[in-house]
TrEMBL record:
<feature type="binding site">
    <location>
        <position position="284"/>
    </location>
    <ligand>
        <name>Zn(2+)</name>
    </ligand>
</feature>
<comment type="pathway">
    <text>tRNA modification; archaeosine-tRNA biosynthesis.</text>
</comment>
<dbReference type="InterPro" id="IPR050076">
    <property type="entry name" value="ArchSynthase1/Queuine_TRR"/>
</dbReference>
<keyword id="KW-0808">Transferase</keyword>
<feature type="binding site">
    <location>
        <position position="196"/>
    </location>
    <ligand>
        <name>substrate</name>
    </ligand>
</feature>
<comment type="function">
    <text>Exchanges the guanine residue with 7-cyano-7-deazaguanine (preQ0) at position 15 in the dihydrouridine loop (D-loop) of archaeal tRNAs.</text>
</comment>
<feature type="binding site">
    <location>
        <position position="281"/>
    </location>
    <ligand>
        <name>Zn(2+)</name>
    </ligand>
</feature>
<comment type="similarity">
    <text>Belongs to the archaeosine tRNA-ribosyltransferase family.</text>
</comment>
<keyword id="KW-0819">tRNA processing</keyword>
<feature type="region of interest" description="Disordered">
    <location>
        <begin position="123"/>
        <end position="142"/>
    </location>
</feature>
<feature type="active site" description="Nucleophile">
    <location>
        <position position="93"/>
    </location>
</feature>
<dbReference type="Pfam" id="PF01702">
    <property type="entry name" value="TGT"/>
</dbReference>
<feature type="binding site">
    <location>
        <position position="128"/>
    </location>
    <ligand>
        <name>substrate</name>
    </ligand>
</feature>
<dbReference type="InterPro" id="IPR004804">
    <property type="entry name" value="TgtA"/>
</dbReference>
<dbReference type="GO" id="GO:0006400">
    <property type="term" value="P:tRNA modification"/>
</dbReference>
<keyword id="KW-0328">Glycosyltransferase</keyword>
<dbReference type="InterPro" id="IPR002616">
    <property type="entry name" value="tRNA_ribo_trans-like"/>
</dbReference>
Amino acid sequence: MADVFEVDRYDAAGRLGELEVPRAGVTVETPALLPVINPHLQTVTPAQLESEFGAEILITNSYVLYGSDDLRDPVEQQGLHDLLDFSGAIVTDSGSFQLAEYGEIDVTTEEILEFQHRIGSDIGTPVDIPTPPDASREQAESELATTQDRLATAAEVDTGDMLVNAPVQGSTYPGLREEAGAHAAESGLDVFPVGAVVPMMNEYRYADLVDIVAAAKRGLPESAPVHLFGAGHPMMFALAVALGCDLFDSAAYAIYARDDRYMTVRTTEHLEDLEYFPCSCPVCTSHTPAELKAMDGEERERLLAEHNLHVSYGELRTIKQAIRRGSLMELVEARARSHPAMLDGYRALLDHTAQLERTDPVSKDTFFHLSGESAQRPEVLRHRRRLDRLEPRGDSILLTEGNDADGFDECWSVRPPFGPFPRALADGYPLTAQVPERLDTPAYEAAAAGVRRLVEAHPDTAFTLAHDDWPTSALADVPERVELWNLKSDE
Ligand code: GUN
Ligand code: ZN
């Protein structure tokens, strides 16, 4: 594997990075969007993507070009960059998607990679087998074995300084996805797309999607650039970035536009249902929905595609700024509130908190507690683990949400959702968190788990917990030997 990817900054497992694409002579800032270009049907041209949207990278299908009577010769002679009129990085897919859709394609990995190299692709793709979700274990294993053979073949083909994708398959089996990730990393190839997730996204199975991406990431080294193949809806970009996906390709911007569908970061709307545009992009500020509805089909499609791209690029900028600031989890949480399936995706993400915690920075912008789910964030887990290394001074300790009291060797603070901590740490991240006054039960329960962790680590120390009327479910988690004071009922 060439050393082409560098991470600049993390937030959870999300990262700002740079992907060096030597053949294009460019470095692509990640997370990045790769608009899918259909060489026969360009609603928005690559030149326009570059000049108006700042696109640094795009993806097109080499199999379509390979099988095209009118484009195969021109692309072989002119090269892909010239044919498409794009100076950034060009990724080529192999026809695997057609294989999954139509069952058969007539090209081998060797042929298509040599073709991709010949036409000047910057990142090529072998013919992997996209095993659909819920395939039998036997099918998933045998197709994965075929994909793995093709990665080995791809590593043998002389592709010069073209980078090569090593897709990670394995259907809905996390164990296979993890193994596939580890195998792909050993193939010597360069970029790691997680494949066959389109059917999952079409069915809004975000929780399953999270589980398989998390599994693939466990198999891959931390430094591997990861592409989420076929993920083109901006509503799930923040979630996927938080898991550690770096590249997204979008055919959705164009497909949706063709069907008069209008993307937002929360939903997909039908143009006919809109009386107002909730967006400030050039399309939406210079037209009303009524004007678009009255246009001829081709112009309407182009404008909708432009809007869909503006929303998608805008969301990626929002995500990059959130990583800079350290507020990516707050953004994921906000996006999770737009659809029940996204909430399932966020909850599934939090099942992998320990995995996210490994790269989460020790200090960020103020932690905002925004919901019960916030209590499961990596920062809370990390604080709870840190309690094992904090030594109470003395034999009797007060843990309190209020003021110091006499009669104890030491007084510590308690703050939901983190739990107890020595007063001296109060000004450090994440204990400077902003929490709502009307706190949710999971925040108290998380704090109680912190109390339990501390108390169990110090069996010979006496603890008193002075709390602001915690719910019974939280108090039930505090070890019985802890003396309880309710500060509210004592007022
Ligand atoms: N496009 C969307 N999904 C896939 C996939 O699994 N493999 C390839 N090669 N392309 C895709
Ligand atoms: Zn718009």
